[in-house]
Design goal:
With about 100 residues, the chain is mainly α. The protein is about 70% helix and about 0% strand.
């Protein structure tokens, strides 16, 4: 299943507010403004964002390459064309900077 981990990874990057995603555009100015107002609160918020990103990567790793149970592998397949066409607007919308 090469396509599903790719879709999941791009969603994980958007969840982590990576540069180039739409959530980064909202989170960065908020962080800068909070640091100008109260540096202690902004530092704690930055620590929370770092821990959230680390958890997202850990969760992605466990989901994609976790413990495999060979008995259940025959039940899963890669997304077909219809499912990829449903995911595509979310991928483009999440990675688009407005």
């Amino acid at each position: 299943m090469p396509n599903l981990p790719t879709i999941s990874f791009s969603s994980t990057l958007a969840n982590m507010s990576s540069p180039g995603t739409s959530s980064f555009i909202g989170e960065f100015p908020i962080s800068v403004g909070a640091f100008q107002r109260n540096s202690l609160v902004a530092t704690l918020a930055a620590l929370g964002m770092i821990l959230g990103a680390a958890y997202s990567l850990w969760l992605y790793n466990r989901t994609v390459s976790g413990n495999l149970k060979p008995d259940f592998l025959h039940k899963f397949s890669d997304p077909n064309g219809r499912e990829v066409s449903i995911f595509l607007p979310f991928l483009v919308g999440g990675a688009t900077v407005r």
